[in-house]
Amino acid sequence: MSINNLHILFFALGLSLYSCGRTSTTPLPTEPLAMQDQASLLAALQASNATAEIAGSVVQDFFSPEGSLITVNGADIQVFEYESAEMMEQEAAQVSSDGSSVGTTMVTWMDSPHFYKAGRIIVIYIGSDEKTLNLLQAVLGPQFAGQ
User: What phi, psi does 85 have (nearest 5°)?
Assistant: First the structure.
């Protein structure tokens, strides 16, 4: 048996032993969910073991689409879904870096605003709960505006 055949045999044997040692309860690595819309956001939140459900609708005069109010582990977030990523980016560009104004509208928030964007959505969380902030950052990435 040649050296190359011997290497292949040992590789196959090692792979077989590795596969036999795995149990069905061992989680396999998964790809992160591609964030495009409200449905993929809900799926990503639920995949992160968060309770997330649509609680109603919300209107912000400075964003063109009507938004959804979603309760995530008891905290409310606002989700605005656009027809295209380009439309979302145009409106996101109007948000000041600290979130105190959007375009020509000055906003007085009840708590610290946090703006996130991904795919075709803008998400607003108004609050300061660290668990909620960490979850949103894990699912959506860092905020693009806010305090």
Answer: -65, -35
Contact indicator for 108, 99 with CB cutoff of 8 Å:
no
CA pair distance 145, 135, nearest whole angstrom: 17
Check residue 75 and give its pLDDT.
Answer: 97
Task: Give residue 30's pLDDT.
Answer: 40
Neighbours of 95 (CB within 10 A): 23
Phi and psi (nearest 5°) for 71?
-95, 125
Tokens, residue 8 = 């292949």
47 C-beta neighbours (distance < 10 Å), count: 13
For the record, the structure tokens of 40 come out as 């993929």
Which residue reads 């995530």 in tokens?
Answer: 72
- Where the chain has pLDDT below 70, the residues are 1-33
Start-to-end C-alpha separation, the chain? 68
Q: Concatenated DSSP letters for 52-108? A: EEEEEEE--TTSSSPEEEEEETTEEEEEEE-SSHHHHHHHHTTB-TTSSEETTEE--
Q: Which amino acid is at 36?
A: Q
Separation between Cα atoms, residue 138 and residue 44, nearest integer Å? 10
- How far is CA 33 from its chain centroid? 8
Predicted model pTM? 0.77
